[in-house]
Amino acid sequence: MAAPYIGSHISLISRSDIRYEGTLYTIDTQKSEIALKGVRSFGTEGRREKGDQIEAQAKVYDFIIFKGSDIKNLSVLDQAASAG
User: Fold this and answer.
1) Could you give the angle at the alpha carbon of 45 between the alpha carbons of 60 and 14, nearest 5°?
2) What is the layout of strands, in order, in the sheet containing 60-67?
3) What are the backbone dihedrals phi and psi of residue 22, each rounded to the nearest 5 degrees, phi first?
4) Are 59 and 43 within 8 A, CB to CB?
5) Element containing residue 65 per DSSP (H, E)
6) Rounded CA separation 61/58 (Å)
7) Geometric angle at alpha carbon 67, from 43 and 9, rounded to 5°
8) How far apart are CA 56 and CA 1, in angstroms?
9) What is residue 51's predicted lDDT score, i.e. its pLDDT?
10) Which of 66, 57, 79 lies closest to 32 in space, CA to CA?
11) Model confidence over 8-53: pLDDT tens digits?
12) pLDDT value at residue 4
């Protein structure tokens, strides 16, 4: 069922409370990884209760691969046109 979501705009919060947004590029079920392309980092946005907050970054990353164990929350913001 992952294939319909390829190309969708995703919001992801990592275990370190950093929010990322990008386009879902691939899902590797064997490695329990997902890859996003055109990724922006929005920092911790006040989510960390202890420790330093991380600021948003202006840079857009071509690709970032996330391990499933590093993902705290994942939301589909806009589903790909072919997904619906």
Assistant:
1) 65
2) 60-67, 33-41, 19-28, 9-14, 71-78
3) -170, -175
4) no
5) strand 60-67
6) 10
7) 60
8) 32
9) 85
10) 66
11) 999 999 999 999 999 999 999 999 999 999 999 999 998 988 889 9
12) 81
